[in-house]
Structure formats: structure tokens, C-alpha cells
User: Fold these one by one.
Assistant:
Number 1:
Amino acid sequence: MERFVTDASRGAPPALSGVASWKWYRHYLRDPLDFFSTVQNRFGQLAVLGNPIPLAPSKRRFILTIGAPFNRIVLGRTDLFRPGGQVLRGPRGSAHHRIRQGIFSMYGPHQTADRKMMQPPLTRPSVATYVGAMSQLIDSFIDRWRLSQQLDMYAEMRTLSNWVAAQLLFGSDDFGAARRLGETIEQWLLLDSETRERLSIIDLPGTSFSRLMRKAEEVEMLMKAEIQRKRLARAATPDVLSLLIDVREKTPDALPEWRLIAHAVILYAASFETTANALAWTLFLIAQHPAIAAELQAEIDRGVTNWPPDYAMLDELPLLDAVIKESMRLLPPVAYTFRTPMQEVELDGLTLGIKDKILLVHYLTHRDPDVFANPNRFEPKRWFAAKPDPYEYVAFSAGPRLCLGVTFAMLELKLTVARVMQRVRLSVVAGARIDAGIQLTLRPTLGIPMVVEPQDRRFAAAEISGDLRRLVEFA
Ligand code: HEM
């Protein structure tokens, strides 16, 4: 058995099990972010939650870990830990069982091979070829806005992210169909969380399990139609879906049809909601920090002199890069993730078995005051000096399973923020209530009402209410 001892070790933590753990589970279900902070304050960086059902046959426990030392082991050692707990397994032969088996839930040599196969259209040279089309799309998106119009910026960024995913990942201009696909995938994943929370496991009419199965069938059907459309059109576009279809045609044994569908589903799911959240939070944080907004505006005025910009030009905008990183540090779209040991492993004196689920809390890893001083403040300039190691900043994860879309997502984020600021000034509606909660991703649960103003450089923060104030310390 491999044994690991981290710098954070306080010896094996006590297990909260049986009926006593109910209150912790309820807390987790009600408010995961508050739950994580409470557990950290009470037990430190490693905590164990036992099975809450007395005499339950399963010995599954939830192991909560916070911080780089645990990330380094659990995310770094893909030979010992696999993804697990993200999506229910579902009955064999069901659409749910098939579509959940995309790259996210794979591990071992098949995962390595498929990851390699999906990489080419997402590398830097390929992503560079998307700059023109993405810039145009962002422009036509902003064209829809009118001065003085009040918009929910979160809903807007969901639409934009959907358009980008449709056109550049799937090579489709049918934004209506793309929206339906994106929203159906999201409903499927939300239903999956609900089904797990309700411990619903039987496919009886009216149960969330049954709704989950039907939703998975709908996702599969929509994705099959998308792939069929792509096969008939066969335009030589450099999008990700075309590449996967090519691989399927050239080496059918390497990529069965059901796996092609599952990869396509996961790609859409992984890209659409994460990017929408990052965009919405970033535009909000800029608007609420006028001094940063003014400096960023000046950097964009100086640095982005033509549209579409050259890709290399975007590398010369250090504050824009820092603002985006800082926004995802404070409010990471993927606030936590799960892993499962593939064999017994000892972590700080605690023996973990193959039934345990490890929960890595990225949201709190990003708030380690030893790595990020004033961790609850939005201070983008910290990135000019800070060089956190890869496991201290895990917005895109770290190690062998780093997000495949990081370069693509950063391009979309940079182009959107730069173009929005060149064309308009967004201000938060005074008195708006901004809440943050985890529904798959860390999102603004009530949206973000913002007003489209002319770009007059008169940046000013608005008074806001809501529980976001718990998460971000505003000056
Ligand atoms: C701001 C936007 C994004 C964020 C914050 C983000 C974050 C992440 C994180 C944290 C993971 C690891 C998940 C885990 O370990 O459980 C991940 C994996 C992944 N992401 Fe992203 N992502 C973003 C955008 C994208 C985009 C645009 C794409 C596709 C173009 C994409 C494709 C993937 C894929 C395929 C994986 C799985 C990699 C593997 O398991 O080997 N992501 N992402």
C-alpha cells in the first residue's frame, strides 16, 4: 500500500459517521460552500464523513481534502486515483450509462489514448485559427445589445458560450438547436445531482431516477442528430466534432459510436457552463472594482488596436490575464471535484479504500492565505508577482488531467472581456441581489442584472446585497 504524509498532516482525522453525520450531509446539501468552510474551521484540511445510513452495507465515506498537498497526490497520481462520483452509473444498456462514459469518467490507458485523440483541435496552434471566427461571433453577439438596456449578464454569457461552443466546437450555425442541446445536457446533469441527493435508485414513473433516464435518452437522441447533421454536411471545418467523426471513420475500433456520442456530450457540458460562469463573474467583478476597470480599459485601449486582434497581441495584456485568473481564483466555476482510490492508499495516517470518495475543494484551495494574501479580495495585480505552483491554483485542474480546453477557454474569455470593454461599459444595477451557489458549477443563482452604458470610462461600483458578500470582500 502506498503511504503519503503531507505537510498539513495532523494524523488520521476523526470520522463523522452514523446518525451524527446527518447534520453534516444536510449542511452540505443546503449550502456546500458554507459546509466546506465550516468543516475546514472545525477539522482542518482533511475530514472524513462516514455513511449516514445506520447499518448500511456500503462502507463508502466522503473524504474532504483542501489544499495543494492533497491535490498533488490525488490529481497527480492518476495511476492511484480515478474520477468517481461525478455522475451516477445507471443501469447497463441505458442511454444514461452510455453517455456518462465520455472522457471525464474514463481512466487508464483508454483515457490516455482518447485524451490524445481529442487534443489536436484544442492545442495553441489550432486555437489560434479560431481567433477570427470567435471575434466575429462576439461582435455580432454584442450587436444585439442596446444602450440603457438592462440585461441578466449571466443569461447573456450562457447564450454567448453556447454560440461559441456550437460554432467552434461543433461547427454548427444552428444556435437554436445548440441551445436546446446545451440546456438538455445541463438538465440531465442537474437531474443526476438531484437523483443522488434524494437517493432515488428505482426507475419508477414520477421518481427523479426515472426523469433522469428519460432525460439521458433525450440527450443521446439530440447528440445523434447533431452528429448525423455533421456527417451529411462534411464541411472541412477544423472543429472538434469533425475531428472525432474522422477518427471514428478511420479507426472504428478505436472509437465506437456510443463513445463518440459520450465524448461529444461531455465536451459540450465541460465547455458551455464553465465558460459562461467565468465570463459572467469576471464582467461583474470588473464592474464592481472601478480602479481595476480603469486600468484594464487603458491596457485594452493601448494593446488591442485592431479587431479581430492578432493572437500574439493577447499575450501582451498582462492585466487582462490577471483579472481572468483572479476571477476564477475567487469564484472557480468548478468549485470542487471527486476522485476514488483504485487501491488502498494511506493519506496522513488515514487508510482509504476503493469505495471512498475523495472531495477536493478547489474553492478553498484558492483561499489559502499563505499562498494568496487577503484571499477574499479581488486583487488581480497579485498575479504580477505570484507564481503559485500548479496544484495551488486549480481552476482548470492540474496534472495529467488538466482541462483540455484551457487554451480555448482563455481565448474566449480574453476576447469577450476585451471586446465588451471596447464597445460598452457594463454597470451592475444598484441594489441588485447577487447570490452564489453550486448547481454543478459555482454560478450566480439569481443572475447578474447589469445595464449597458456607453463606454464613457465613468466606472463606478454599485451597492449590492446577497450572499456573494460572504464570498468576496469588497473594499
Ligand atoms: C472557464 C472555462 C473552463 C473551466 C473553469 C474548466 C475547468 C475544468 C476542470 C477543473 C477540469 C477537471 C475536472 C475534474 O478533474 O474533475 C476540466 C476538465 C476538462 N475540460 Fe475544462 N474547463 C473550462 C472550459 C473547457 C472548454 C472550453 C473545454 C473544451 C473545449 C473543456 C474541456 C475539458 C475536458 C475534455 C476535460 C476532461 C479532461 C480529462 O479528463 O482528461 N473545458 N475542465
Number 2:
Amino acid sequence: MGFRHTPFFELLDAVQAGGCPLCRIVNRAVRRYLEATLYEFVNDAGMRHRVVQSQGFCAAHAALLRQMGDGLGVVLLHEQVLAGLSRGDLAAVLKAPAAPCPACATAAEWLDHSGGTLLASLDEPEITDYLNGRPAFCLSHLRWLARHARSRQQRKQFAEIARTTAEHLYTDALTFTNAANRSDPNRPDLTPEEKTVWLRILDFLSGSPA
Ligand SMILES: [Zn+2]
Ligand SMILES: [Zn+2]
């Protein structure tokens, strides 16, 4: 039995909150990271250097920065990269960034952390129950878990969860398209859950929104 510590209880909270628990933990950590960056680190030399290396943020994390609405923070964070690009020669302008988006790097660290906690807690009763029910992992995180699984049996369990989730979504997708067929007088009425299939498809294949 794994050691029940703070990361384990954070994982349990995420499991109980619904949606992909790993998306939830990673998204929350990234949001905190970007908030801290804007409010405390816009003038930090290390942070500015990181943004120069990555030439800004990826589109998904830039969307989060937009939501946060801190214009001055965004400007200060990006001044140096613009200075470099505007002063460099033409070949330098076309060169790909030397490092990934800093928020993506943070997301990867938190996935290692929370995914590792989950894999270490597979024999905890709450986690066992969750995995045996209808777990809401996104496909990308199921693949991560399968890749880092500690046994062939664990790997198979995550692959099976992925297939079963796809199967349920496919069934609901067929019902949804049938219900949308206005020329069919016997088209089924959708349950509230069936009506959300399009959102659940996006959550499964693309992950929960940040
Ligand atoms: Zn996920
Ligand atoms: Zn990113």
C-alpha cells in the first residue's frame, strides 16, 4: 500500500471532482504558475530568459494569459524576446525556439508528479474503485499512464479503460446523431447525459480545457 500523503489527497480530490483528474491537477498547476509569473516574476531575469528561449508561449497557454488580462505583465514578459528578434539577423528570426513553452514544461513536470502518485496508489481502495467504475481520464493521460505503468498488467488495464471509454462514447455518439435526424419520426429523446456527448468526446480526445 502506498504512503497516503498530501499529493495522494490532492489526487483523490481531483478524482472526486469529475473529469480527467490528471488534466485537473496539471491545469490548476499551470494556472497557478502563470499567475505567479505575472504577479511576481515578470522582472525576474531567469523567467525572462526562459521566455526568450521559448520565444513566448504556445497558443493554448497564451489563451490563458489572455484570460488573465494583465496587459503590463504580458508586455514585460515579452519585451526581451522582441528586442532579440528585432535586432537579430534574418536567419535568427526564422530559427525555431530553443526551448518549449515554459507553461508546457511546467505541465510536463506536474504530469510526472501526479501521474506518478496515481501509479503508486493503484492498490488504494479509492483508486481501485475509481478505476473499476467509469474513470474519466482523457486519452492522452491514459497513454501516459500506460507508458509509465509498472507492470504489463497495469499497462493493459489503462489500455482497456481507453477502449471502454471510446466504446461508450461511440454508442452515445450514434444515439446523438440518430436523435439529430429530423426526418426520422421515431428519433430517440436524449437523456441529459447523452446530450453532453459532444463535450465528453472533446474531453476524451483533447483533454479538459485549462
Ligand atoms: Zn487528462
Ligand atoms: Zn504551452
